[in-house]
């Protein structure tokens, strides 16, 4: 890892992809990357950076294994995977919440002995309820989680809410908010030490661009 030629960055495809690339392009990175192509590796010979395009949840694995030095990932994946990576920077996109949701009158179920919770995030969910000393039965799903209470598969769900549109469309409501989430820049722990300058230069530029955008927004609001 010490004498590697390239700094390697894992970029998530899916929801966080476009904004990750947009932000990196603003600071002069990710020039060769084109998410619309089916290519998974892009090399910037000039800057000596390699970009790998991976499924969102797998960013954690690539960075934890040191195959990627750094990566962009949702906080939900950091909490779910429980791997030893450094969280370096909060990025100003991918905002959403991790919530418990169900039918309007299902709040009382939260105390049930056998509360059945459907989720794509079993670890995060188990930890949350464990801290509250609440026993639950987790029903692991991989998508369309909102369907579970509708068909009696679970009492409630633990899932991400962004606009609230999916809950609303299925007659469900937020019962309890657990965590605020957003995209994060993460690093492999060893890579961080060996690429300290390069990584910190990237962080500084990212922070600057986020500060500029936030100042622009504040100025616009004031005028
Ligand atoms: N409305 C949302 N729903 C899901 N994730 C969101 C939402 N808004 C922001 N995010 C963030 O985007 C990240 C990636 O979302 P994406 O949908 O690409 O992943 P995924 O659900 O694992 O992918 P796939 O749909 O291919 O299984 C999430 O981990 C989360 O941090
Ligand atoms: O509050 P909203 O803006 O409606 O977004 C929330 C929905 O989006 C995510 O699902 P996704 O679209 O990733 O689909 P999935 O059901 O296949 O996981 C999430 O699991 C919710 O279902």
Automatic annotation (TrEMBL):
<dbReference type="GO" id="GO:0005737">
    <property type="term" value="C:cytoplasm"/>
</dbReference>
<keyword id="KW-0368">Histidine biosynthesis</keyword>
<dbReference type="GO" id="GO:0003879">
    <property type="term" value="F:ATP phosphoribosyltransferase activity"/>
</dbReference>
<dbReference type="InterPro" id="IPR013820">
    <property type="entry name" value="ATP_PRibTrfase_cat"/>
</dbReference>
<keyword id="KW-0028">Amino-acid biosynthesis</keyword>
<dbReference type="InterPro" id="IPR024893">
    <property type="entry name" value="ATP_PRibTrfase_HisG_short"/>
</dbReference>
<comment type="similarity">
    <text>Belongs to the ATP phosphoribosyltransferase family. Short subfamily.</text>
</comment>
<keyword id="KW-0547">Nucleotide-binding</keyword>
<comment type="subunit">
    <text>Heteromultimer composed of HisG and HisZ subunits.</text>
</comment>
<dbReference type="InterPro" id="IPR001348">
    <property type="entry name" value="ATP_PRibTrfase_HisG"/>
</dbReference>
<comment type="function">
    <text>Catalyzes the condensation of ATP and 5-phosphoribose 1-diphosphate to form N'-(5'-phosphoribosyl)-ATP (PR-ATP). Has a crucial role in the pathway because the rate of histidine biosynthesis seems to be controlled primarily by regulation of HisG enzymatic activity.</text>
</comment>
<dbReference type="InterPro" id="IPR018198">
    <property type="entry name" value="ATP_PRibTrfase_CS"/>
</dbReference>
<feature type="domain" description="ATP phosphoribosyltransferase catalytic">
    <location>
        <begin position="57"/>
        <end position="207"/>
    </location>
</feature>
<keyword id="KW-0328">Glycosyltransferase</keyword>
<dbReference type="GO" id="GO:0000105">
    <property type="term" value="P:L-histidine biosynthetic process"/>
</dbReference>
<protein>
    <recommendedName>
        <fullName>ATP phosphoribosyltransferase</fullName>
        <ecNumber>2.4.2.17</ecNumber>
    </recommendedName>
</protein>
<keyword id="KW-0067">ATP-binding</keyword>
<dbReference type="Pfam" id="PF01634">
    <property type="entry name" value="HisG"/>
</dbReference>
<keyword id="KW-0963">Cytoplasm</keyword>
<comment type="pathway">
    <text>Amino-acid biosynthesis; L-histidine biosynthesis; L-histidine from 5-phospho-alpha-D-ribose 1-diphosphate: step 1/9.</text>
</comment>
<keyword id="KW-0808">Transferase</keyword>
<dbReference type="GO" id="GO:0005524">
    <property type="term" value="F:ATP binding"/>
</dbReference>
